[in-house]
Specification:
Helix 1 (about 20-35) packs across helix 2. The protein has three domains: about 15-120, Schlafen, AAA domain (Methyltransferase, Cobalt-precorrin-4 Transmethylase, Domain 2, 2-Layer Sandwich); about 210-325 and about 340-375, Heat Shock Protein 90 (2-Layer Sandwich); about 385-454, Orthogonal Bundle (Arc Repressor Mutant, subunit A). It is of the alpha+beta class and about 450 residues long. It is built from 15 helices and 18 strands. Strand 1 (about 15), helix 1 (about 20-35) and strand 2 form a beta-alpha-beta unit. Helices cover about 35% and strands about 20% of the residues. The strands form six sheets. It has a six-stranded mixed beta sheet with strand order 10-9-13-14-16-15, covered by helices on one side. Strands 1-2-5-4 form a four-stranded mixed beta sheet, covered by helices on one side. A two-stranded antiparallel ribbon has the order 3-6.
Length: about 450
């Protein structure tokens, strides 16, 4: 029998020590509507035994909970050994449809809590539900010959480098396995976007456009309407990414700086931050929206990258740093195998950190119902704000600032380690004071809260 180790509850893990069908139903629905997860029945999050001990009781509790779900949630369950004895483990996969409770509530999982969606947000979740299935749709009129063999071969090489121990399989079998070809060997949406010779013949909106303006507004340097440079990027997504990146890099200002005995080239915006914003736009845009393409706008004071489609599923501007969700899981996995995505879910925090570390303001995120924009400003002055308020900081705050300059970020736990004899409320007030003065930027909430230089 497998064993269960006590871990902290979170986005995909919940503990229910007692057989309460209503609470179990809420948790099952929340997991199914979000990222899936595991429910441990018969044990609390601290490892204490619950009242649920018999297999029959677990069966009855699950049956009663499923009767409260609309439609019932598909679960896999097993009996395992925990530190308190026998427990029952329920596994829930993310569902392709939205589940509700008997009273009409739509639950989602945020951190370690089940939360009901407001009525206005239900459409938001519904809008992000069917995209994975959209990726698998056959593209009308496309054939196997519309896929580029050279692009496929390069992908296979990259995939093998990333997973050298993976078992080899015939090319078309692998393309079917990753969802690029249907059973009838017809290219799917994701297959055409990743490997197509000319995807824009079938999906014209899958291009990207770059425009360089000579002002802070859509004008030329002389004040007239227009732009200095316009480029259109066509082809499969890897080609679009490489072409767009080359143009952005050409247009970014560069300067040489000397550090120690070495000369370095410093770009107008940090390289990682720009590439991450570009990759995110390509990977997470809503390809069902046909009226607009990805837009890259470079002004004299900022860079804007806009992708069609609002934030998917449960992602909001408030939780975008901590949470992650793939609107296009097969496209995301393809770009991951290519090497464009290094660590899933860590791009946004690092993008913010790179901007701040190089003295820029953190990027701004704008989420509308049908588009999402990342805005990066090129103003740099990493010491001005700190110097302005340095005289008013207490000794603890100065220690915190030194810690951030060394490590890039600080958490409440880090602050407690720096000042072990100070109470939690004092630490909270110190950090809140630095945030209110505009010195620090607070990212995340609850246990995921951390602070970086603003």
């Amino acid at each position: 029998m497998d064993s269960v180790q006590v871990q902290s509850p979170g986005q995909q893990l919940a503990y229910l020590p007692d057989a309460d069908p209503a609470v179990l139903a809420e948790t099952l629905v929340a997991f199914a509507n979000t990222d899936g997860g595991t429910v441990v029945l018969g044990m609390s999050a601290t490892g204490r035994p619950g009242t649920l001990r018999q297999e029959e009781d677990a069966n009855d509790a699950l049956a009663a909970a499923l009767r409260l779900c609309r439609p019932p949630v598909v679960t896999e369950w097993s009996r395992q050994q925990g530190p308190v004895g026998t427990v029952f483990v329920l596994r829930v996969r993310r569902s392709a449809e939205v589940h509700t409770l008997w009273d009409g509530r739509v639950m989602i999982r945020r951190g370690a809590e089940n939360r009901p969606l407001e009525t206005a947000d239900v459409d938001h979740v519904l809008g992000g539900r069917t995209t994975g299935e959209f990726e698998l749709q056959e593209v009308a009129g496309a054939t196997r010959r519309d896929l580029d063999e050279k692009v496929i071969e390069t992908y296979l090489e990259k995939r093998l480098q990333r997973s050298p121990s993976s078992a080899p399989m015939p090319k078309d079998t692998l393309l079917q396995h990753i969802g690029a070809l249907s059973e009838n060997l017809v290219p799917t949406v994701s297959g055409l976007l990743l490997f197509g010779k000319e995807p824009q013949l079938f999906m014209p909106h899958s291009r990207a456009i770059f425009v360089r303006f000579g002002d802070t507004q859509p004008r030329q340097a002389d004040g007239g309407f227009g732009y200095g440079r316009r480029e259109e990027f066509l082809g499969p997504l890897p080609v679009i990414l490489e072409s767009a990146w080359r143009v952005i890099l050409q247009e970014m200002d560069k300067r040489s700086v000397v550090r120690g005995l070495h000369r370095h080239e410093e770009t107008e915006y940090p390289v990682f931050a720009v590439r991450e914003a570009l990759v995110n736009a390509v990977a997470h845009r809503d390809y069902r929206l046909t009226g607009r393409s990805i837009e890259i706008r470079m002004y004299t004071d900022r860079l804007e990258i806009t992708s069609p489609g609002g934030l998917p599923a449960h992602i909001t501007l408030d939780n975008i740093v901590e949470e992650h969700y793939s609107r296009n899981p097969r496209i995301v996995n393809g770009l991951y195998q290519w090497g464009y995505i290094e660590e899933l879910g860590l791009g946004i925090p690092r993008m913010i950190q790179e901007m701040v570390d190089t003295g820029h303001p953190p990027p701004t995120f704008e989420a509308k119902s049908h588009r999402f924009t990342v805005i990066m400003y090129n103003s740099k002055d990493p010491t001005r704000i700190v110097q302005e308020y340095e005289r008013s900081m207490n000794e603890r705050q100065l220690k915190a600032m030194e810690f951030i300059q060394r490590n890039g970020t600080i958490t409440n736990r880090d602050y407690r380690d720096l000042c072990p004899h100070v109470g939690q409320e004092t630490i909270r007030l110190d950090l809140a004071d630095l945030v209110s003065k505009g010195i620090l930027l607070k990212i995340g909430d609850k246990r995921g809260t951390r602070y970086i230089l603003k």
